[in-house]
Design brief:
Layout (H helix, E strand, L loop, with lengths): L1 E7 L5 E7 L8 E6 L10 H8 L3 E6 L22 H19 L5 E6 L1 H12 L6 E5 L6 H17 L7 H8 L20 H9 L9 H14 L2 H4 L8 E6 L9 H12 L5 E6 L12 H22 L1
Parallel strand pairs: 3-4, 3-5, 5-6, 6-7, 7-8
Antiparallel strand pairs: 1-2, 2-4
Helix pairs in contact: 2-3, 3-7, 4-7
């Protein structure tokens, strides 16, 4: 059953939140989901139904500037006028508190996709003891020199125009090469999935594929730099379990190279409970790939493994 609500946040904004639960099954865990850039949480309803069959309750919200949250406040494609990346992470924390208040006895796992995975990685740097595990879909590594160049471009454009202007140039510079290795190319969004039906649904969805603001790009690029700092990675609880999953052909993860660098960095900081799975020929949205049932099966197996470890130690 789907339940919908609007959650008031500490700065007066409201975000759209929904949950999915099979009420005929006693739940054993919560999945708090953070969606990606230029999409929205209701794209994950099928995923929520699949996870509910594994005895999970799924909570998902629309970030600021995305989905139905824009109906009550904000601008499409814009996080915040100030410190948008950190504010989006604070939103995750406040929703996490709401979830714990409503389910005090259930473990909570945080699942982030793409931009949402960057928010999740920052979340566990800022907050300890709030989640029992982290699942990262379609994440990426440090953008390096290209990222620094894009930040400078964003700064110049914000001075010339405004943070709230659509970031056409930066959007093109970031995404123009994502289809580079795909042949034949059917659409500009083939890099999302090999499942053309899912790609078409994304293209036809008015809440997807929009041009984010210059401010959002600036916030995310600065946030990406922040989450890769060794001083911030060091703050993560060393016992927290991580599960990375990605398509081997995902350009966001540099075809796994960027993700492997993230995993190596975690291990250098003595986070040794890190698992990962790369899917052959899979692209950016493994939850919308042809083998999504297999992906969900592996997610549920990993979560059950963590729950077993907790129960064994109690």
């Amino acid at each position: 059953m789907k339940r919908e609500s609007w959650i008031p946040l500490s700065d007066g904004h409201e975000v759209y939140l929904w949950s999915w639960q099979d009420e005929t099954i006693a739940p054993k865990a919560i999945i708090q989901l953070a969606h990606g850039m230029a999409e929205h949480s209701e794209r994950y309803q099928r995923t929520a139904e699949q996870l509910a069959a594994c005895k999970m309750i799924v909570y998902a919200h629309d970030h600021r500037g995305h989905g139905r949250t824009v109906e009550r406040n904000g601008l499409l494609g814009h996080l915040s006028d100030e410190n948008g990346f950190e504010r989006a992470v604070t939103d995750l924390k406040e929703i996490n508190e709401f979830i714990h208040l409503n389910h005090p006895d259930l473990p909570v796992f945080l699942l982030g996709h793409s931009m949402g995975s960057f928010f999740v990685r920052r979340f566990v740097q800022r907050y300890d003891g709030c989640v029992d595990g982290v699942l990262l879909s379609g994440t990426g590594g440090h953008p390096g020199y290209k990222g620094k160049t894009l930040v400078k471009i964003a700064e110049k454009q914000m001075k010339k125009r405004s943070k709230k202007s659509e970031g056409h140039l930066i959007n093109r510079l970031i995404f123009q090469n994502y289809n580079k290795k795909i042949s034949p190319k059917m659409t500009d969004f083939d890099w999302l999935s090999t499942n053309q039906n899912e790609v078409r649904k994304y293209i036809d969805d008015p809440k997807c594929g929009f041009i984010p603001t210059i401010g959002l790009f600036y916030d995310v690029l600065k946030g990406l730099d922040l989450i890769h700092l060794d001083s911030e990675v060091e703050k993560i609880n060393k016992t927290l379990p991580f599960y990375f999953f990605s398509g081997a052909d995902d350009p966001v993860g540099e075809h796994t190279k960027g993700i492997k660098k993230v995993i190596d960095q975690l291990k250098r900081h003595h986070l040794n409970h890190v698992d990962y799975r790369f899917y052959h020929k899979g692209r950016h949205e493994m939850l919308n790939e042809m083998n999504n049932h297999e992906v969900i099966k592996h997610l549920c197996e990993w979560i059950n493994k963590q729950l077993y470890k907790v129960a064994k130690n109690e």
